[in-house]
Amino acid sequence: MALHTRLKPGKEAEYESVHAVIPPDLDAALRAAGVRSWRIWRDGLDLFHVVEVDDYAKMRAILRDHPANIPWQARMSELLDVEDDYSGGDSGLGLVWELP
């Protein structure tokens, strides 16, 4: 699953600092929700995520009200241009091309 998010201006260093250490309970919650890997690249304010998970919709349903994810999402809402409130049918970025 590929995702795109955007930082608020001036939050680049803070975002990277916050992600230097992910809380252990959030790590465990992500893994329990089926996440095998989550990578994030930054280009200016744009963030590009690649999430390796079998069922992205199920992962989001599990994490929506998870006690480890709620404070994390509150923290991210301070840094991201658009808050992820888990209310929509986020389906990630559409694949345009792939080198097989």
Q: What share of residues is helical?
A: 25-40%
Number of strands: 3
Tell me, what is the CATH class?
Alpha Beta
Q: Look up the CATH topology.
A: Alpha-Beta Plaits
The end-to-end span amounts to 17 Å
Trace the largest sheet across and list its strands.
Answer: 1-3-2
The radius of gyration is: 14 Å
Percent range for β-strand residues: 15-25%
Instruction: Specify the overall morphology.
Output: globular
Helix-strand topology string: EHHEEHH
Main sheet: strands, sense, barrel:
3 strands, antiparallel
Q: Helix/strand-derived class? A: alpha+beta
Low-confidence stretches: none
Architecture per CATH nomenclature, i.e. the level-2 architecture: 2-Layer Sandwich
- Tally of alpha and pi helices: 4
Nearest-integer average pLDDT: 95
How many domains in all?
1
Task: For the structure shown, list the relevant keywords.
4 helices; alpha+beta; 100 residues; Alpha-Beta Plaits
What do you see in this structure?
Helix content is 36%, strand content 22%. With 100 residues, it is of the alpha+beta class. The relative contact order is 0.25. It has a single domain (2-82), classed as 2-Layer Sandwich (Alpha-Beta Plaits), CATH 3.30.70.100. The chain has 4 helices and 3 strands. It is globular and about 35 Å long. The chain has a 3-stranded antiparallel sheet. The mean pLDDT is 95. One of its GO terms (molecular function) is racemase and epimerase activity, acting on carbohydrates and derivatives. This is L-rhamnose mutarotase. It comes from Amycolatopsis orientalis. Pfam families: rhaM. InterPro entries: Dimeric_a/b-barrel (IPR011008), Rham/fucose_mutarotase (IPR008000).
